[in-house]
Design brief:
globular; Heat Shock Protein 90; 3 helices; alpha+beta; ATP-binding; 5-stranded antiparallel β-sheet; 30% helix
Amino acid sequence: MNPDTAPAEAPSARTSRPPVAITTAAAARRHVREFVVERWRSPAGPPSEQAMIDLILVVSELVTNAVRHGGGIAGFDVALTSEGVRLSVRDYSAAVPVGLHGPGVLPRVHEGSGYGWPLINRLSSEVDVERRASGGKTISVLVPLA
């Protein structure tokens, strides 16, 4: 059976390989939005606008962090699960984000940066950081859509 014509009862764990490399937050946002709109199938219907806003915010923060702090984007994957969207962003730095403010807790004073990682933790139901043997790291998150 062709996976694109499968019954629409629930989202699948199909993954996406972007036709072009994702190198910017704007490209990542566009790709993820198109991917979800095209492939999300749920008895509950399409994701709410708030769920999509949260997802796009997480995409922006992950990719921006990889560019600013990780030496660039080494890979970007998106997959659908029955709970939402799994994102994986690989970069070139082995340095892992420091939860200076605890998971999902925003800093009391804004000092020019520091909001991205807490937002990623707050809006994702799962967050995993894995150092790669070949160098760099992969940050994978699950952002709920229900």
